[in-house]
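[audit] Reproducing an earlier prediction to check determinism. Same input, same settings, fresh worker. If the tokens differ from the archived copy the diff job will pick it up downstream; this log only records the rerun itself.
[audit] input (164 residues):
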Amino acid sequence: MSVNKVILVGNVGRDPEVRYLEGGQQGQTKVATFTLATSERYKDRSGELRENTEWHNIVAWRQPADVCERFVKKGMQIYIEGKLRTRSYSDASGVKKYTTEVVVDTLQLLGKREGEAPSQGGYGQPSGYQQSAAPQAAAPKPAFQAPVQNPAPAEDSPSDDLPF
């Protein structure tokens, strides 16, 4: 048995580049590529705060590529589940190079961009792409969150300040 699964929560480094490839049953296949930054903060031996940022190459095909094209922008915080794929290519001078990418299975829009209202759209499993309200906080929420119904406001109720 083997497992190839990646879970990332990070900030989009550049707007997705969307291309259309010929072929397939519907004629053209959409693919979106972009970078995602994940950061970790820690204290070194001298007690000084350090930050390490890792950049990931993200590839989304078909429906996730459509979501990327329509909603994902530079600076947004997103949650991605996918798998690692390493491929080779030849550069302009004919030298063989390798690159490792994360191929998207699940994409969830999180938080908000600077100066914008919160994102409205989460995208779960690749077969259904159910839309749900995006969380307000920076941490990801469970993928299968029950919808929140807005009850009639209770007068002077201490529980009406709760975020759920």
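[audit] rerun output stored. Observation attached for the diff report: The first helix runs from residue 62 to 71.
[audit] end
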